[in-house]
Amino acid sequence: MSTDLEAELQTAVEHRRNFAIISHPDAGKTTLTEKLLLYGGAIHEAGAVKARRAQRKATSDWMAMEQQRGISITSTVLQFEYRHCQINLLDTPGHQDFSEDTYRTLAAADNAVMLIDAAKGLEPQTRKLFEVCKLRKLPIFTFVNKLDRPGREPLELLDEIEQELGLQTYAVNWPIGIGDRFKGVFDRREQKIHLFERSAHGSREAASTVVDLGDPRIEELLEEDLYYQFKDDLELLEGAGSELNTDLVHQGKMTPVFFGSAMTNFGVELFLNTFLDYALKPGSRVSNIGEIPPTYPEFSGFVFKLQANMDPKHRDRVAFIRVCTGKFEKDMTVNHSRSGKIIRLSRPQKLFAQDRESIDYAYPGDVIGLNNPGVFAIGDTIYNGQKIEYEGIPSFSPELFATLRNPNPSKFKQFHKGVSELREEGAVQIMYSADETKREPILAAVGQLQFEVVQFRLMQEYGVETLLDLLPYSVARWVTGGWEALEKVGRLFNTVTVKDSLGRPVLLFRNEWNCQQVEGDNPELKLSAIAPLTF
Ligand code: G4P
Fold first, then answer.
1. Closest C-alpha to ligand 1, atom 30
2. What is any one GO biological process for this UniProt entry (predicted)?
3. Are residues 245 and 312 in the same domain?
4. SS3 491
């Protein structure tokens, strides 16, 4: 390798951090994102991201919205610079938009920030996303938000994370008071107290007063009971003795915890600084030829998300590629692993919110958007040099199931073509009844939005109007060991058997309880919430 390129890649990796935020709706993800961008100088006044969100919320018809905006109801990539580092924030789609893209985005991330509302603690969507992070062994940084409002005891929140997620916690900073009596946080790294000043929604970077732990003013600044409570907490924390162990953080076994209030900007800078010091840089990735380091001189990356433009006037589609190795350059030609084709990457885009900006080069840890003339599917690898295939992106247990019907026999061909193409694109998972006489596809999704997208696109792009019959299941489990393993256990109750698009057996259950019952009754049956990967 030329030493120049080697040095260039090394520097790029050293100065890159990439992460996604996992949270439950309303925990403050939009607010935190905005504040991070504010600190990164990517926006000058908070409100920009928020305004877009409000605009989006205001419309009940997201399809119409999508048409107006052209692109991006789901994730975008936000890039900003902070302390000489290039930070890539992969925006996971939230609530109403919850879909498989939310999971897939985590496949492209090197770190996750788990955002928790101090009053609510862990919530369902956060738990689900945590499971994906755990599977990928992603380092998780926890930000406990909304300290300016009444909330739960900090120790109780840490305990919940430890008990329920099995993650060791290390509080990097510690709150003093909460709600109306929130006074600030103690930064354990610097041994300094950052005093909280209420600012009106914090549209600018927060000015903060920092005092040493030994400063006699503290006793005056804090009311007596808070002061003693704080001293007790500190003793308890120090007594607990755990150290911030970077290795454990990088293995996804320990989470550094921060307390703050995104709305008022409080604690955001402290968080960013520590995050930069401890977050994982773009690293090696598992492929068919072993682990490949990011400084490998040839370009390679994989598709983690496809996005179709809903606007019929601009029917382009964008494939989002996570750059894994080498340097990406505009107009370069690459090999497409699955088809063996050679492709010219001529219109690369970097996406800052909804504005598309053309880019000339990108490095490991970056995400680029490429026009997708139907070549790319989720999980595809593109590469130069020796043939590389990255580990695919698994399908996660869908929670919504519906039979899709085509009431118009003359549209038979278009219907099947559409269903099969949308499946390939990863818009939805498709399953079929194990009963050969039932040919209608079963759509399996993690979010309602996916159904709407499929029906809308079948109509717009394939001219087929469809009917959807919801099925009463909410849990899917792949049978490890395939049909043979399933036959061995004999008849099962409270479940139906279907097959996925690769013909593998999947059991559908009405609820978790039924699933556990079947597992309990048949210990020899091994079930998985994630589809086995095929290389
Ligand atoms: P999301 O993207 O995770 O769904 O959450 P978002 O940022 O939209 O925040 C949800 C609500 O929580 C917003 O209030 C937001 O202002 C508020 N919020 C976020 N961070 C904090 C915080 O640190 N402290 C307090 N007190 N509130 C916070 P909203 O009423 O829905 O919107 P708005 O009236 O503020 O626009």
1. 26
2. regulation of translational termination
3. no
4. coil
